[in-house]
Each structure stands twice: as structure tokens, then as C-alpha cells.
Amino acid sequence: MGPKNRFRFPSHLDAEDQGKSSWLDIFHPHRRSYSPFLSPARPSTTSPSSAPQTPNSTKLTRINTLLTNLADIKHSLDIRTFTQNLIQHHGLFCRSCSRAAAPGTCGPTCALLHPHPRDSLSPWLTASWHEDCKADEALYTAIKRGVDSTGDKAHSSQIKQWEDGVERLRKGIMNQADRVGEGGKAGTKGLDVAGALKKDWGFEGAWGRGGALGDRDVAPDEEGEENLQGE
Description:
By secondary structure, this protein is an all-alpha fold.
């Protein structure tokens, strides 16, 4: 028989947060070993000029990509921090009301008004998990601080170091759907567009003639059900 208290994301989380929450926001796919600290941002050495400098478009694109990925990563880090607080306070924690010491300020579903101890995850959240959370938070903070203070004025090697750190963090928050999406959909059959659509193709000549895919390629589950019914 399973545990009596099964962990669920608290009901007082915003609806938007609940929709984005993933178990991989809590459990890492694997433990990563890397230093959470980065060297200080090093501005690029350029000769002073009285004329205004034109921003480097390549650097601007890389910085904007970093900021976008950092925003996605921050959401995951916030969920992990929230989970740590839930465990530390035995479920009696609210992101809004605990800081202000005013239970119920966020609304009638505040966890402080309806205490439900949430200890069911504690056995799985080991000391190494907490260490990984702290390392990720430190790495994120170092990168965000450097990007905000230096931006596209940073040296290319520094931007590359930020990108490497962000990529490690980003891979740590990916779920299975994200991984399949990046690597291509496994088990799907591609369509040879060049072979199916000729240069003189038109709706008039192709109407009612069907396509290059068979029924099994389009709906394999339905075909399997028909075979079972026939048997």
C-alpha cells in the first residue's frame, strides 16, 4: 500500500505555475558535477572613440538568447526553492504569506490556513539533491548578475562561458517531451515531399486519388482495433 500522504503541488500555487510545473523541476535527471561559480565578467577591450559605437548584432543576439533561457530556468529554480521550504517547514509554508507573517493574505486557499504536512517527498530529496539546488542557484545568480551588468560589452569568451553554464542548467530542467522535441520525434515516418508532389501538381488532378501514406501510416491504432474486432 502506498503512503497515506502523497505529494501534490500545493493548491494555492497560481494556475499559471501549476500548468508549468514538472516533476523534473524537483528531480534532476542526473547529478551534475561542476563549479557553481564563474569568473567575474570581463569587458571587451576596445579603443575609446568619441563617436558612438554600433552594437554588435551577433553579441546582442547571444545576450538576448541567454536572457530568454535564464527566465525559463528561474521558474524551475523557484519551484525547487519552494519545495525546499515546504520540507523545511513541514508543509506550513506560503510563498506570499510566510514572508509577511500574515496567514491568509494570499486568499482562502493559503497553506497556512489549512495545514497539511507534506513529508512524503523527504525520503527522496537527499542531501545531494539539496546540494544540487544550491549549486544551480549560485550558478544562475552569477550568470544573471554578469549578463545584467555587462551585457553585449562582455568579451566573447565570457559570453561563451555564460552560454555553457546556461546550457547545463537548461538541460537539467528539460522533461521527456522537451528532449524528444529537440532530438526529433522518434518512431515517426517522414514523408518524401519531393517524391509525392511533382512540379505540375494541382488539386484538380490529385482530388480523390489519395496520398503517399497508407491507412496504417496515418492511423495505426485504429487499424489495430479493426483487426482485433475482426478476430
